[in-house]
Design goal:
This protein is an alpha+beta fold. Helix content is 24%, strand content 22%. It has 11 helices and 19 strands. The strands form 4 sheets. It has an 8-stranded antiparallel beta sheet, with no helix packed on it. A 7-stranded antiparallel beta sheet has the order 2-1-11-10-9-8-7, with helices on both faces. It starts with 9 loop residues before the first helix and ends in a 25-residue tail after the last strand.
Length: 460
């Protein structure tokens, strides 16, 4: 049955179109196209153009610049999941002779390898890749800018190294691996390394006059994994849905969630933004957005996903500078999420009752701090402060009867039930923290013991 809520409301659609129209007009863009994906479906496309009757649509190709990096990162995570590498492996283990082989694959993915932001001159984005035939030409003589692993420093050459790593381990070109492992499974048939009609041409708009200059479009060679791709609004919405939920044909939901997790601390003064593994992470309008922005001469692009809202947006324009596609895409997500908030799934009881687990629910105390434990699906549990704030987490069940923390302070920590000789529950142990049924309950393994005289009133 078709849901009556699949289409956006007319007022929402008008607000989206208004935002795109303002972006195109104020950004002085030859053309601008945007799209919104909700719950895995393309639900809106809007565009504006300086040429009457020639607005782009969801099938028109634009260069997407550094959004390409996210695709490259997915290919690396696939290699990890197949056991062909570990993210903590030094690059030298799989791609010897680069001169920077001590950096790890994870550091390259998260831009913490300390490498330079750009290649040696001439600027790689506006010159043919044939000028840089080897990785030594990409890295240059002064590729080290910062101590390895100490700070986030965006590096385009770092993703050229990752592209070469993929080719070395797959025995095929980055382009062919990309097509076979991501584009074909996700039906992204309009995403290519070279433009295919219909596609936009890249333009520069004079900063002080309403006149334009065509921008060159170069094959980037070894730098292709950092920014080569052309794509469409429709294809990128398919990719956005994958970044929200994962797809076992490409990458599991668990591995995609790992990509969305910050890999290094943000730079000072940038606490509202970070970087995962091939994904930018920003906080805007009270929500977390993951995705990537991109630019190459003649083009700017952005893709943002709000996983919690089930909404993603893409913004593409064919101009070197002007429209802030990252801001526009974030605004499109906000407009939909606020005007048409996600409708929660109906509450349903658990499929079966495990009485042994049911007995664990209710209040627990860490010292004098009160917590409540409740059951979740698939034998998971949740432990949360009963006074608001404080440390809490959801925990996934393990085969040995323990649970593993999924978030916050307890992420990765083990929660286990400690029983007495007679089988009754003594306490919960969470990473050495003891949770008892009563505050400082006598006869349990409270660290430091419990005073023999117990609780008392005011001593006069």
């Amino acid at each position: 049955m078709t849901s009556p809520f699949e289409d956006l409301l007319p007022a929402t659609q008008r607000a989206l179109l208004y935002r795109v129209a303002v972006a195109q007009a104020e950004g002085r863009a030859p053309s601008f196209v945007a799209a919104v994906e909700r719950e895995g479906q393309l639900v809106w496309v809007g565009s504006r153009s300086s040429v009457d009757g020639h607005e782009p649509d969801a099938d028109t190709q634009y260069r997407i610049g550094s959004i390409t990096k996210t695709f490259t990162a997915v290919l690396v995570l696939r290699l990890r999941d197949e056991g062909l590498l570990d993210l903590n492996d030094p690059l030298e283990k799989h791609l010897p002779g680069t001169g920077v082989g001590d950096v790890t694959i994870a550091q390259l993915l998260g831009h913490s390898a300390g490498l330079s932001a750009e290649t040696p001159a001439p600027w790689w984005e506006r010159t043919p890749g044939s000028l840089r035939p080897g990785l030594a030409d990409v890295l240059g003589d002064q590729s080290r800018m910062h101590p390895v692993g100490r700070r986030h420093h965006y590096s385009n050459p770092g993703y050229a190294l990752l592209g070469s790593l993929i080719e070395a381990l797959r025995g095929a070109s980055w382009e062919n691996v990309l097509r076979r492992e991501i584009l074909e499974p996700l039906a992204m048939h309009r995403t290519t390394t070279q433009p295919r009609a219909p596609h936009a041409g890249g333009w520069a708009v004079h900063p002080w006059a309403d006149v334009m200059l065509p921008e060159p479009s170069e094959d980037l060679g070894l730098m292709a994994p950092a920014g080569q791709l052309w794509s469409t609004a429709a294809d990128l919405c398919r990719f956005a849905a994958f970044l929200a939920e994962g797809d076992d044909r490409v990458l599991s939901a668990v591995s995609v969630r790992e990509m969305r997790t910050p890999s290094v601390p943000p730079e000072a003064g940038e606490w509202d933004s970070g970087y995962g593994l091939g994904l930018q992470i920003v906080r805007k309008d009270g929500r977390t957005l993951v995705g990537h922005t991109g630019s190459l001469p003649g083009f700017v692009a952005a893709l943002w996903v709000s996983v919690d809202d089930g909404v993603a947006a893409v913004a593409l324009s064919n101009v070197t500078s002007g429209p802030l596609t990252g801001t526009v895409a974030a605004d499109l997500v906000r407009i939909v999420a606020e005007a048409e908030p996600r409708i929660p799934e109906p509450w349903r009881p658990l499929p079966e009752v495990d009485h042994e687990l049911l007995e664990l629910t209710g209040p627990w105390y860490w010292g004098t701090y009160s917590f409540g434990l409740r059951l979740l699906a698939d034998r998971g549990v949740e432990l949360q402060s009963m006074r608001g704030g404080g440390r809490g987490s959801r925990f996934s069940a393990e085969a040995d009867g323990t649970w593993t923390g999924l978030e916050g302070y307890y992420a990765g920590e083990t929660l286990r039930v400690v029983r007495r000789e007679n089988g009754s529950v003594s306490h919960l142990d969470l990473g050495s923290f003891v949770f008892t049924r009563e505050p400082y309950e006598p006869g349990t393994a409270v660290p430091g013991g419990v005073d023999k005289e117990g609780w008392r009133g005011l001593q006069v």
